[in-house]
Structures are given as structure tokens and as C-alpha cells.
Amino acid sequence: MRRKLQLIIATVAILSLLMTGAALAQEPDSDFEVVRAKVEEWLASQPKPVIAADAVFENLSDGDESNDPFIISVRAPDIYEMGHVPGAVNIPWKEIVKPENLEEIPTDQPIVDYCYTGHTGQVAMTSLALLDYDVQNMKFGMMGWTQNDDVLGLERFDPETVPDYRVETEVNEATETYDFPELDTGATTEDDIVRSALDNYLSSGKAPTISAEALFENLSDGDESNDPVILSVRSPEHYEIGHIPGAINIPWTKLGDPDELAKLPPDKPIVAYCYTGHTGQVATTMLNAMGYDVTNLKYGMMGWSADPDVVATAIYDPATSPDYRIEGTLADGAPMADDADMMSVLPVASEMDAGDYTWSVMSYDLGVVSQVTAAVADEDGTIVRITITSPTADTTALEEALTAMMEAYVGAQ
């Protein structure tokens, strides 16, 4: 009997251990791990986080509306009203992952968002990408789209005023490892955890960027106790060309790797930087969502060093930046501007003698013409519509006149 009782007790103990193990195995991942895994998954897809303004313009101007992206201005509503990319809707970047705003963003269409200089647009872009939207940020934001400084809404980057602070080439190895941040969003499902983590960061009031001047002053104040960890998220070869003194290097594409994340302290400020501010802002957004305290260096190495070899990418040049059409109250002659303020294509009448005939001539000042398209009827090759694309003029009136002329000509044959 005693032997039988011992056998029963042992069996119960074993079952208890097995049940406890099963319960532990089914315990949900921490919020940090959920967000980290989502970051790692997105980075594994080899995303292209930025798109040039030229590429956006060409897409919107190709005559094929079916491939147009959904355009989001993440700027302040009053700045949006002053001027925005034609067709853009407005959702401020701090509110981009609110459920009511996500409902307005298509899940089956490419998205392009933009801001002022590329930074907060990159915050919004990264946030949407981690929620499985197909999205890119327009490089340099409105600064890369228009020459109108009033529409831009803040000071334009000027390469002539870059401070050109010191860089070093000595590799700094991260010698310590740290525990991961303790992240508690209060959400239960994985999707809600990621969205809540992003929303908590966007709603925190934390500044997304720090200027090169402010960072330099911090590092040079003689008080090492307030120095942030400096994180270069550039490629190893560009890190070795030159980096901010003391910076460690973890490329932004590896910031979902637990071994790399263990090099970052969860309880100390971090300043990340890249080339022009864009992928540094991607890194900053991902890390803040995971619970780190990170700020991005505004304009990246482009804002720190005047050495183009150290910057290692094309530097923004105000003189060659495009000036595409805008919509809004300040669309005062900017290319592709509002109908009321845009440079219209107005005909200038004149006469030209040719032999025994006098020809009436209508001249149009188009400025730059980037594309002329003739739509042709499939059955007989007749031109039925002429489209002219110009970044410097409204060509609607001329298109209608030319089309009418062609229709009259065809009708007379």
C-alpha cells in the first residue's frame, strides 16, 4: 500500500512539473521581445526607407493614376494649408498611428509620406512600416520638393554653414553588454503591442532630433557624466572613414539583432546618426519603440562634417533642389502651383508673313517641358488627346487648345 502511495505521489509530481513546464513554454513574450521581433522581421525584408522627390514627381506626372502612391503630409495642419504636394492628405506625425488615423490609410496601395526636412517624415514612415504598411519617406521632405522657403516652414539646410567638427577613424568597440529595456505597453495582442509602443513614443513629447551644435556643446562641456552614447548606424566602411569621437558602430539594418542591441544601455541617453538624417531617424524610431532613450542627429554626418568624403553620400544643395508644383495658400508661382497663383501658359498672338500668305501664330511660354504625350485611338491611330508635363507651368489651357485643333483637323479630313 505504501509503495503504491509513493508511486501515486511521484506520478503527481512528474505531471505537475510537466504542466508547469508547459505553462512556462506558453508564457507570452515580453513587450520588448514582440517589438524587437517585429523590427527584425521588417529589416529582413531589406526595406528602402526613402524615395527622392524627383521619383515622386515622375510617378505623379506619368499620366497613369493607377500607380500613384497615397501621399501623406505629416506636417502641422497650418503648415500643410500653406503648401503641400498635390493630392496629399494631412496626418501630423505624432498622430500617425492613432487607430482613427490608421483607418484612413490604405493597406493595398504604396504610400509616400513627407515632412519638412525628412526627419519626422522618417519617424512616421518607420512607424507605419512596422505596422505592415507599404511606405517610403520623401527624402529631405518639403525641402527637397519646393524652393519656396515660406512653404518649407523652417530654415533650409545650407552646406555653407556646416560647422565641420572633428571626426576620428579609430574604431571604438562596445565592451559592455546590458539587459534589454523593460517595456510595458499594457496591450495584449502582438499588433496592439507594436502599435502602442510606437504611439507611446510619438506621444511622449521627446524631441526626435538634436542639432550638431547642441551635441558638440554637450560633448565639449567637460562633464562626461552627461555625455550620451554616440551610435553610428552607417556601414562599417563609412564608419571607418570618419565618425564622431567616441561613437560605436551598429548599422541600422542590424538593430533587430539581440546581440547588437545588448551593446546599448537601456538607462542612458543615446544619440544616433547616419548620413543625411534619414536612416538615423529610422534607427531612432525603432529603438525608442523598444524602450531605449534615443535622439537622432539632425542631418546626420552631413550636419557634422564639411568633408564630402566623410559624409560619403550626396549632400543636399539648395541651388539644385527642384521646385515642383504645390497646392495651398502660399502657392505663389512655385512650379506646379495652385491654379490661382501658378504661372499660366498664356498665348501671345502674332503674325508671320510667308510668301503670299500671312499666318496667325500663337506662341506659348512653357518654360521647361519634361514630357509631351499624344493619346492615340487604338483602331485608326488618330490623336485624341495631347498632354504636356512641365514643372514650371500650368499647361492645361494649351493641352485643351492643341487637342481641339487636332480634333478639328481630323474632322476636316
Structural features, described:
The chain has 413 residues and is α/β, with parallel strands linked by helices. The chain folds into two domains: 33-311, 3-Layer(aba) Sandwich (Oxidized Rhodanese, domain 1); 347-412, no CATH class. Helices cover 33% and strands 15% of the residues. It is built from 14 helices and 14 strands. The protein has helices spanning 2-25, 31-44, 53-60, 77-82, 99-102, 119-129, 149-152, 190-202, 212-219, 236-241, 258-261, 278-289, 308-311, 396-412; strands at residues 50-51, 70-73, 89-90, 111-114, 135-138, 209-210, 229-232, 248-249, 270-273, 294-297, 347-354, 357-364, 371-376, 383-389. β13 and β14 form a beta hairpin. The radius of gyration is 29 Å and the shape is globular. Mean pLDDT is 84; it is low at 4-26, 333-346, 348-354, 357-363, 367-371 and 375-384.
Features:
14 helices; 413 residues; 33% helix; alpha/beta; Oxidized Rhodanese, domain 1; 5-stranded parallel beta sheet
